[in-house]
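#onboarding

Welcome to the new folks! Below is a worked example of what a typical request in this channel looks like: someone posts a single protein sequence, and someone else replies with the predicted structure as tokens. Don't worry about understanding the tokens yet, we'll cover that in week two.

Example request:
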Amino acid sequence: MVIGIGAIGLLTATLATYFIEDRRVGQHPHIEFVRLQLERWEALTPQERRNVAEFLLRLSQDGAP
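Example response:
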């Protein structure tokens, strides 16, 4: 009985992980780029920060760079 409960728990966790990871892979590449830049914001030069800001502005206006 304990083995059956463990097997069901393992199956549930595997399915949950599959669906969560699937969403991350499907993210838009532009959004992923911005997210990575924001994660390292403190390390960016002022010019790189301006580039990220301009990129976001173009995305908001056009929907694509």
